[in-house]
Specification:
Number of helices: 11
Shape: elongated
Strand content: 15-25%
Radius of gyration: 21 Å
CATH architecture: Alpha-Beta Barrel
CATH topology: TIM Barrel
Largest sheet: 8 strands, parallel, barrel
Helix content: 40-55%
Length: 224
């Protein structure tokens, strides 16, 4: 299982990479726009820091333009993977890109059925959006299991990428369901490790410990 960081921030990548949480990076137009400046230069910087897959998304909706844009973006770095939307137009473009040997990450999958033709095409990744759907009163956790089973039944090398992981519950469900990759934003990792119950427990333990006289704690805490 791999963890991709869902960001276009160099600062975030440099922080989480030493922790083993940046096997790759997933960007999108919205994330790149947050960083300002030249998005092409930003992608190149990311690709220099991270040796794993860097997902970069096309910004066209017509197949021919998608293909042209994908070919251009693919030249930015050897580890670039092209994000193509899970639509009819995206499928048409993906067929051409597959012939050209361009690696793909099919994005914006909200129901496993969207992924089926792409799985059959044996694209590199299919990205199921676990989050975001709750804004419409839906729950997509079961869809991770369904998509995992679909890939296995079709005996495809396509990897299941669970995306839009917005909280620790989604993260754990994606792990248990057998995702090949989790793409997690920094905000979710912050939620995991800034758990208020953990923070309260840590404070309570240390507070109790410090009720002992310093002389009693000295040998225990000595690093000599």
């Amino acid at each position: 299982m791999e963890f991709f960081l869902d960001t276009a921030s160099i600062e975030d990548i440099k922080f989480y990479k030493p922790l083993g949480l940046v096997d790759g990076v997933t960007t999108n137009p919205a994330l790149l726009s947050k960083e300002g400046g030249d998005p092409i230069a930003q992608i190149k910087k990311i690709a220099e820091i991270v040796k794993g897959p860097i997902s970069v998304e096309v910004t066209y909706t017509e197949p021919r333009e998608m293909v042209k844009h994908a070919i251009k973006l693919n030249k930015l770095a050897p580890n670039v993977v092209i994000k193509v939307p899970a639509s009819i137009a995206g499928l048409t473009a993906a067929q051409e890109l597959k012939k050209a040997g361009i690696r793909m990450n099919i994005t914006l999958i909200f129901h496993p059925s969207q992924a089926v033709p792409f799985i059959q095409l044996e694209v590199d990744y299919v990205s199921l959006f676990v989050g975001r759907v709750e804004e419409f009163g839906l729950n997509n956790k079961e869809a991770i299991w369904q998509l995992r089973q679909s890939i296995d039944e079709m005996e495809s090398p396509t990897k299941l990428l669970s995306a839009s992981i917005r909280n620790p519950e989604y993260l754990l469900e994606a792990v248990i369901a057998g995702s090949d990759v989790l793409t997690v934003p920094p905000s979710c990792w912050q939620m995991v490790y800034k758990n208020p119950i953990f923070q309260l427990g840590e404070r309570d333990f240390l507070k109790s410990w410090r009720t002992l006289p310093a002389t009693a704690r000295k040998e225990y805490e000595s690093l000599d």
